[in-house]
Amino acid sequence: MRMPRGTWRQVATLVGLSLLVSILSGCAISGAYAPMSSVAPASDHAREINTLYRLVFYLAVIVFIGTMIASLWFTLGFRDNGRRQARQFHGNARLEVLWTIIPVVIVIVMAVPTFDRIFAIAEPPPSDAIKIEVIGHQFWFEFRYPDLGITTANEVHVPAGRAASFTLRSDDVIHSFWVPQLFGKVDLVPGHENHVWFTPDAAREEAYLGQCYELCGLSHANMRFRMFVDDTAKFDAWAKNEAAPRSPSAVAAGEAVFLRQACIGCHTVQGTTAAGKVGPNLTHFGARTTMGAGIMPPTADNLAKWIRNSADFKPGSLMPAQATATLNDQDLQALVAYLQSLK
Ligand code: HEC
Ligand SMILES: [Cu+2]
Predict the structure, then answer these.
(1) Pair (279, 325) in one structural domain
(2) Chain segment 225-275, per-residue pLDDT in tens
(3) Is the C-beta atom of 337 inside 6 A of ligand 1?
C-alpha cells in the first residue's frame, strides 16, 4: 500500500484531532469535578455494575480500533487510482463464517456475566437490611423509614456496611432515583413498586449526590437529593433525632406564625398541629444541609425568598407564593428563624 505524503499528514491530523477531542471531553473519575460518576463505585452493587461496564467498554474499544484500522486500510489502500481494475467476485465462505463467529463470541462474553450479575443484584436483600421508602413528588424526594418512625425529605442517611433496601413509588408522574456511585438507576412509577438495595462501603463526611433522571416537569433539573453514608454511631444519633418531635427550643414566635399560615395545610411539623402531607416534612428542616431538593443552602436569605416565591428558584414549584398582604415582613423573618431552629 503506497500513499502520497500529503495523505499521511491528513490522516495523522485527523487521528490527532480526534484523540484531542476524546481526551479533552473525557471525564474525571472522581473528586470534586465528578461527584456523580458511576466509574467511582462505593458500594458492592455499584462495583459489580462498574466491572460489567468496564468489560463492555474494553471490548468495544478493541472492536472500535479493529474496525477503524480495517476501514482506513481498505479506503486508503484500495482507492481507485485509475491504474487497477477491481476484481469482481461474490462470497467467501471462510470470511463470512469468521465474521459471524467473532461477534457471536463477543456477545456471549458480554451476555453471560451480565445476566449472571443482573440476577445476583436482583436477589432479595439480607433480612437485617435497613428499610427505606422513597416517594417521588414534583419536584422533591420523600424518604420514610417505616421501622424507625422517620419521615424526611431530600436528604437520606444510610449506615455504612449494612444493606440498605429501598422501596420506590411515585405520587404523581414518573421520576427516577439514582446515586451513580452507589447503585443502578431505578424509576419511581405511579401505581407500581420498584426495589433496589446495596451495601455502602464506608462512612464518608461528604454526601453522595443523586437526582431525578426522568423528565418530570418544569423543575426536573432542580429535583436533587443527597445520600449520606454514616458510621453506625452517627447514623443512630441522626435517626434518633429525626424520629423525635420538633426541638423544644424551636423559636416560639415563628411557630405561632407558621401555625396560623397556610403552611400547615401542606407541611408536617411533629409536636405541633401542623400535619400537612403535600410538601416535605419540616420537623427537622434545620438539620438539613440543603433546601428545595438539594438546590441551595438553607440560608436565611434563601429561605425568605423561597417562602415569598419558590418559583423564583424552581419554575413550576407546587409551593404557592406568599404575598406581603398575607405574610408581612416581620412574620416572614420569624418564620425563617423558626425553620432554621427546627434542628
Ligand atoms: C400548597 C402547599 C404548600 C403550602 C401552603 C406551603 N408549602 Fe412549603 N412546600 C410545598 C411543596 C410542594 C414543597 C416542595 C417544593 C419543591 O422542592 O419542589 C415545599 C417546600 C418547602 C420548603 C423546603 C423544604 C425542603 O426540604 O427543602 C420549605 C422550607 C417550606 N416549603 C416552607 C413553607 C412555609 C414556611 C409555608 C407557609 C408560609 C409553606 N411552605 C407553605 C408546599 C406548600
Ligand atoms: Cu422527577
Answers:
(1) yes
(2) 999 999 999 999 999 999 999 999 999 999 999 999 999 999 999 999 999
(3) no
Kindly give the distance from the C-alpha atom of residue 148 to the centroid of ligand 2, in angstroms, as a whole number: 26
DSSP-derived letter for residue 225 is: E
Ligand 1 centroid–CA 26 distance in Å is 39
267 lines ligand 1 (CB under 6 A): yes
The total of structural domains in the chain comes to: 3
E strand map for the chain: 130-137, 140-145, 150-153, 155-159, 164-170, 175-178, 186-188, 194-198, 208-212, 224-230
Q: Which pLDDT score, from 0 to 100, does residue 27 have?
A: 59
Q: What is the pLDDT of residues 312-339, one digit of tens each?
A: 999 999 999 999 999 999 999 999 999 9
Cα–ligand 1 centroid distance for 82 (angstroms): 75
pLDDT band at 91 (very low <50, low <70, confident <90, very high): confident
Place of cell 396560623: 260
Distance of CA 15 to the CA centre of its chain: 35
Q: Is the CB of 339 under 6 A from ligand 1?
A: yes
Asked whether 304 lines ligand 1 (CB < 6 A), one says: no
CATH of the domain at 157: 2.60.40.420
Q: pTM here? A: 0.88
Same domain, 193 and 219: yes
Clarify whether residues 186 and 259 are in a common domain. no
Per-residue pLDDT tens for 175-210? 999 999 999 999 999 999 999 999 999 999 999 999
The parent domain of residue 270 ranges over 252-341
Looking at 243, 272, 300, the residue that finishes a domain is 243
Cis peptide before 183 (omega within 30 of 0): no
Domain boundary at 217, 243, 269, which? 243
